[in-house]
């Protein structure tokens, strides 16, 4: 009996009822997919939220399952079975899922896209678009004692009806803008080559912003009904996909405000700046861009040149940088200071900007097409290949554009120049603003077109014939890795190897190394230049000429509690899960401090032989042991692809034995045998190394015991010697202390410093005060005399007759005399105290 692994639930998840279909759903989906000829419509019927909720779209129904509940049920079942894996599916079927009650969604769902905080869900059909307000976190959990209702009512909003439903315009791709203040801005690309941005929190009918992506100007404004591309442009000039530039980072450029889009014929364009009216960006990011624009203007006027001395191109460039600086300045001035009304701005490094308050009266210019250079011009023959998807990736070495084509290939482009903001200038010359025409002429030149270089073109599946839809998904943890799912499976593309080399070369340049270092870096780049490694994770067309099952969605799980894995959903609603291992965060590079430390530990350490004892020698060999290359090549990915069985061959149907099936089984068996041999060989190498390490460990333990025994003997002797030395040192210290005190006292008595004028004046004043207190007519003598008189008056007082009438004379009464005596006693006490202090001070001054 085996034992249950913590991630064993991943393989069992596909048996959950959330993936069940009804007969009507199967027929609708099959008929829909057979009649679809739109190769560029984004297809994504599975998604994940940050709250670990798995969302699945089945026809027009949306289901949600919390994966935390699935794993908890798996662990509980394994615990009840003494850590044995469950043999039935009852534990999985008992995990509930919810169905969203959305009657307004009456169309087959083509894609679902949750926003960043998981509160909104964009739902797109072929020609329909809606947004669903998802309930709060934890709505999938079941509370004991309460009635469980599978259906959950949610607010549904149909977006842009007159753009899509009424005009029958197809929805190609949707994405939530990452800079939106309340995560409510939805960017939509439609079949009329219009890019629209909706703020679903304010207006769901009218777009907040609209951009015409057609490279040719339309003869008249686009109408929503009866639009025909044949009147304006050919099918090769249609915009088919777009990608946003990502989040705002302090070390980023203009890519956060850029939208990259591709035409069907392979041309790539960009729009900048494009951002929601209410956006949240990093303050440091905006300030850095402003400093760069200001530095560029100053650089143009460097070397003592004035503006009039610049040529036309440099003057136009100066005007452009002025517009950049003005736009950034106005964005910073539009910052909302009141943070109480904007809870998203708790982090003071983030600011809220309002892009609609820009005073520039120009529209954003389409920049492109991107120049590729060399013999490759980037133009495709739409009869053989078309652009299916585009994705922008910001890596540590360079900005990358990934373009997927319908012929089953992907192309990785390195962006040579950064896209910066550009605006359309008036065509007619304005005498009041002549600089506009000069800047417009400069921006229309081919010299300022953005540039990119084709690094590699990869054919993912050579068996693809005709056109197939390709969708790109970037790994949220490792940006140098992306996945491509299509009609024949799922492929992973790993660019880490050449991106690391490029980053190393960039680091050498940025450090300002000498010519030798730069030359070595370039030589290493040219010598070790290699392409990306690819692997097929899911094979939905195992037979070369057989039926294929399209993949209609892919999502990636990155939660630390769940796992790092991906889920692929086939058109038959079979879930295929692939575990993706996490990389080692700290890599030991050759020549690094860690590598040198390891080599130093393993280097033979032969001590000098003393007393006939043998020295210690390490038996481990250099270089340090690493994972076998056969396992490193896997890059923590499964070597065997998951296979999707076609519907015509699945279930209880008999296996048809023909050339295709035999070739498939033979290939699978050979690969399995190769994998077994590889694992066995790697296991033997590992066991051999472990045996050596065990011997080395025992040797080190024995040596450590010998060293410890020697240290104890040496320590005992050293303690005795140290104790004797310490006692001698203490005696010597005491003797020296006595001598120092004697010499110090002698010096104090023999060498007194002369009094200063202030000290002499103070001493004279003290003598006078002493005379006033203790002199013949001093305060003490006067006090004694008064006390004697008081005593005499007390003696005479009883002798007087009490019968005599009271005479009002100038003599003191008894009460007054008593009070006077008390005051005099008090003064006498104070005088005595003062006398003592003066005498003490006089003695000290006399000694000094």
Automatic annotation (TrEMBL):
Residues 756-844 form a coiled coil. The keyword Nucleus applies. GO terms for cellular component: nuclear pore. One of its GO terms (biological process) is ribosomal small subunit export from nucleus. Keywords: Coiled coil, mRNA transport, Nuclear pore complex, Nucleus, Protein transport, Translocation, Transport. The keyword Hydrolase does not apply. It is found in: Nucleus, Nuclear pore complex. GO terms for molecular function: structural constituent of nuclear pore. It comes from the Eukaryota. This is Nuclear pore complex protein Nup88. It comes from Phycomyces blakesleeanus (strain ATCC 8743b / DSM 1359 / FGSC 10004 / NBRC 33097 / NRRL 1555).
């Amino acid at each position: 009996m085996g034992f249950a692994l913590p991630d064993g639930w991943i393989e069992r998840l596909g048996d959950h009822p959330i993936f069940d279909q009804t007969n009507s759903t199967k027929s609708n989906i099959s008929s829909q997919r057979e009649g679809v000829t739109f190769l560029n419509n984004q297809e994504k019927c599975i998604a994940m939220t940050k709250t670990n909720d798995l969302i699945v779209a089945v026809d027009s129904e949306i289901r949600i399952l919390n994966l935390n509940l699935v794993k908890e049920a798996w662990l509980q079942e394994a615990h009840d079975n003494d850590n044995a894996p469950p043999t039935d599916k009852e534990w999985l079927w008992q995990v509930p899922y919810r169905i969203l009650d959305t009657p307004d969604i009456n169309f087959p769902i083509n894609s679902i896209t949750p926003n960043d905080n998981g509160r909104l869900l964009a739902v797109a059909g072929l020609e329909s678009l809606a947004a669903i307000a998802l309930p709060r976190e934890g709505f999938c959990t079941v509370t004991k004692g309460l009635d469980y209702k599978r259906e959950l009512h949610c607010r549904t909003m149909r977006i842009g009806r007159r753009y899509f439903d009424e005009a029958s315009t197809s929805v190609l791709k949707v994405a939530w803008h990452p800079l939106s203040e309340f995560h409510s801005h939805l960017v939509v690309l439609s079949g009329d080559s219009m890019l629209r941005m909706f703020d679903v929190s304010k207006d769901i009918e009218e777009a907040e912003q609209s951009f015409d992506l057609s490279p040719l100007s339309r003869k008249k404004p686009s109408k929503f009904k009866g639009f025909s591309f044949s009147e304006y442009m050919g099918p090769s000039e249609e915009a088919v996909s777009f990608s946003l530039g990502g989040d705002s980072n302090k070390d980023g450029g203009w890519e956060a405000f850029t939208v990259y889009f591709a035409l069907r014929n392979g041309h790539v364009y960009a729009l900048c700046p494009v951002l929601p009216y209410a956006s949240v960006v990093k303050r440091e990011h905006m300030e850095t861009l402003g400093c760069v624009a200001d530095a560029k203007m100053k650089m143009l006027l460097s070397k003592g040149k004035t503006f009039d001395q610049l040529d036309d191109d440099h003057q136009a460039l100066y005007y452009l940088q002025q517009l950049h600086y003005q736009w950034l300045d106005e964005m910073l001035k539009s910052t909302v200071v009141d943070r109480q009304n904007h809870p998203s701005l708790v982090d003071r490094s983030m600011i809220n900007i309002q892009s609609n308050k820009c005073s520039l009266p120009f529209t954003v210019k389409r920049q492109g097409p991107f120049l590729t250079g060399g013999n490759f011009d980037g133009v495709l023959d739409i009869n053989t290949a078309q652009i299916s998807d585009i994705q922008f990736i910001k890596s540590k070495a360079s900005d990358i554009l990934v373009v997927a084509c319908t012929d089953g290939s992907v192309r990785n482009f390195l962006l040579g120049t950064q896209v910066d903001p550009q605006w359309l200038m008036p065509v007619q010359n304005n005498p009041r603003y002549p600089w506009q025409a000069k800047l417009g002429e400069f921006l229309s030149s081919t010299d300022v077109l953005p540039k990119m270089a084709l690094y590699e073109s990869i054919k993912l599946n050579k068996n693809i014939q005709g056109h197939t839809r390709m969708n790109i998904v970037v790994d949220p943890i490792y940006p140098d890795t992306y996945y491509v799912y299509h009609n024949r499976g799922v492929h992973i593309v790993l660019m880490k190897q050449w991106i690391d080399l490029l980053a190393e070369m960039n680091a050498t340049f940025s450090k300002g190394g000498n010519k030798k270092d730069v030359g070595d870096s370039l030589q290493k780049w040219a010598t070790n230049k290699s392409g990306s490694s690819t692997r097929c994770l899911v094979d939905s067309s195992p037979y070369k000429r057989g039926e294929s099952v399209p993949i209609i969605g892919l999502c990636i799980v990155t939660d630390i509690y769940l796992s790092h894995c991906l889920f692929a959903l086939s058109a038959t609603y079979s879930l295929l899960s692939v575990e993706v291992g996490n990389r080692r965060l700290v890599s030991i590079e050759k020549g690094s401090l860690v590598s040198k430390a390891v080599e130093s530990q393993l280097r033979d350490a032969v001590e000098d032989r003393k007393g006939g004892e043998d020295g210690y020698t390490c038996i481990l060999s250099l270089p340090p042991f690493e994972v076998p290359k056969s396992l490193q090549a896997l890059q923590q990915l499964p070597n065997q692809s998951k296979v999707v069985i076609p519907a015509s061959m699945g279930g209880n149907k008999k296996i048809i034995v023909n050339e295709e099936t035999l070739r498939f089984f033979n290939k699978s068996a050979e690969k399995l045998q190769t994998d077994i041999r590889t694992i066995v060989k790697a296991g033997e190498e590992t066991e051999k190394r472990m045996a050596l390490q065990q011997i080395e460990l025992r040797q080190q333990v024995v040596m450590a015991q010998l060293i410890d025994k020697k240290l104890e003997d040496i320590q005992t002797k050293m303690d005795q010697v140290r104790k004797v030395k310490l006692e001698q040192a203490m005696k010597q210290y005491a003797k020296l202390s006595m001598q120092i005190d004697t010499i110090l006292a002698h010096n104090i008595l023999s060498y007194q410093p002369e009094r200063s004028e202030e000290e002499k004046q103070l001493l004279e004043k003290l003598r006078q005060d002493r005379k006033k207190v203790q002199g013949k007519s001093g305060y003490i003598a006067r006090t004694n005399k008064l006390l004697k008189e008081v005593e005499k008056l007390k003696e005479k007082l009883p002798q007087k007759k009490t019968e005599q009438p009271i005479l009002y004379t100038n003599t003191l009464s008894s009460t007054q005399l008593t009070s006077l005596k008390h005051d005099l006693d008090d003064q006498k006490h104070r005088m005595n105290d003062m006398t003592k202090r003066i005498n003490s001070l006089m003695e000290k001054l006399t000694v000094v």
